[in-house]
């Protein structure tokens, strides 16, 4: 893999720690913020980048868009160093308090470490000092800058998006879908198709100027952001139709998921363990099954 690390300015006081799969956004100010925490295998590199970038300053707060292993992986390691507060949804807070969930998140991170031949002994452990926020909460950054909290479930039940104002930079987590390495947008409605679609439509109403995606790209300009979200919505509908068709032929959800993974996810933005990818696709098949096929 080509390594292109370093920190680049995104706009104003927003910076991005470059990474082909897991770019991380840093907002500098009176308090320094990080949006999400990448994977455990990147923890030491992120630490080094932040050290160089921040000098003696700390990370004061981490905003988690959701609880997935590839957004929380480096969290506990970085928290040991910086002692920051974590801001997340109530559901993410509950997940991060569960021993079972911590073991699950660590398990996927250890698999990713193996894939990257990372033999460090780092483990993901239970983060502390997690504060729950909800729709319309505002996180002030300075007298002229704040982050607005939006609940955008559907990717997971715990998903939040954050809107930096007045710049209108949107951090949607995985709620806007993911751009694959071949440029195609892939939907990620893991917990609910209907909620995912509603969240996408909600994001469209914000007229964001920048879409700071958590995997491999930034979309700049109001028009480009709108086009991205429209394309994402269209792909979401198409994938649902495809799953509905498959469910008419068979009720074997696992085999539908296997076929979809091979057909649709051949160039994933997030390599990840196959197990994690298959879990995602299986969750989407189940969501369509329960919301559109198996009418109660
Ligand atoms: Zn996710």
Question: Secondary-structure map with pairings?
Answer:
Elements: E1 7-11, E2 14-17, E3 24-27, E4 33-35, H1 43-54, E5 61-63, H2 69-72, H3 75-82, E6 85-89, H4 90-95, H5 99-115, E7 130-133, E8 138-142, E9 145-151, E10 160-165, E11 169-171, E12 178-179, E13 185-186, H6 193-204, E14 210-212, E15 218-220, H7 222-249, H8 253-264, H9 274-293
Parallel strand pairs: 4-5, 5-6, 6-7, 11-14
Antiparallel strand pairs: 1-2, 2-3, 3-4, 8-9, 9-10, 10-11, 12-13, 14-15
Helix pairs in contact: 6-7, 7-9, 8-9
Fraction of helical residues? 40-55%
**Overall 3D form:** globular
User: Which regions contain 5 or more consecutive residues with pLDDT less than 50?
Assistant: none
The average pLDDT is 93
Number of domains: 2
Order of helices and strands: EEEEHEHHEHHEEEEEEEHEEHHH
Total DSSP helices: 9
Query: What share of the residues does DSSP label as strand, in percent?
Result: 15-25%
Corresponding CATH architecture of the largest domain: 4-Layer Sandwich
User: What ligands can be seen in this structure?
Assistant: zinc ion
Taking the alpha carbons of the first and last residues, their distance comes to 48 Å
User: How many strand segments?
Assistant: 15
Order of strands across the main sheet: 1-2-3-4-5-6-7
Main sheet attributes: strand count, strand direction, barrel closure: 7 strands, mixed
At the fold tier of CATH, the topology name of the largest domain is Metallo-beta-lactamase, Chain A
């Amino acid at each position: 893999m080509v390594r292109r690390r370093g920190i680049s300015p995104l706009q104003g006081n927003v910076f991005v720690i470059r990474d082909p799969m897991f770019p991380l956004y840093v907002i500098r100010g009176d308090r320094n913020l990080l949006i999400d925490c990448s994977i455990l295998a990147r923890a030491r590199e992120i630490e080094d980048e932040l050290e160089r970038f921040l000098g003696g300053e700390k990370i004061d707060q981490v905003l988690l868009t959701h609880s997935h292993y590839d957004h929380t992986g480096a969290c506990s390691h970085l928290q040991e160093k910086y002692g920051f507060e974590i801001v997340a949804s109530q559901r993410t807070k509950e997940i991060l308090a569960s021993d079972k969930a911590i073991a699950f998140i660590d398990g996927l991170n250890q698999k990713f470490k193996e894939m990257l031949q990372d033999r460090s002994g780092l483990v993901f452990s239970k983060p502390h000092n997690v504060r729950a926020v909800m729709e319309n909460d505002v996180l002030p950054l300075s007298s002229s800058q704040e982050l607005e909290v939006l609940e955008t479930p559907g990717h997971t039940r715990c998903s939040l998006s954050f809107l930096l104002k007045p710049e209108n930079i949107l951090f949607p987590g995985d709620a806007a879908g993911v751009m694959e390495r071949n440029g195609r947008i892939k939907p990620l409605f893991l917990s609910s198709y209907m909620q995912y679609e509603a969240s996408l439509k909600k994001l469209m109403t914000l007229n964001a100027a920048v879409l700071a995606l958590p995997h491999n790209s930034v979309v700049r300009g109001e028009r480009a952001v709108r086009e991205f979200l429209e394309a994402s919505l269209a792909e979401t509908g198409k994938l649902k139709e495809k799953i509905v068709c498959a469910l008419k032929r068979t009720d074997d959800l696992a085999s539908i998921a296997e076929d979809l993974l091979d057909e649709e996810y051949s160039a994933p933005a997030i390599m990840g363990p196959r197990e994690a990818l298959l879990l995602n696709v299986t969750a989407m098949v189940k969501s369509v099954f329960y919301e559109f096929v198996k009418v109660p």
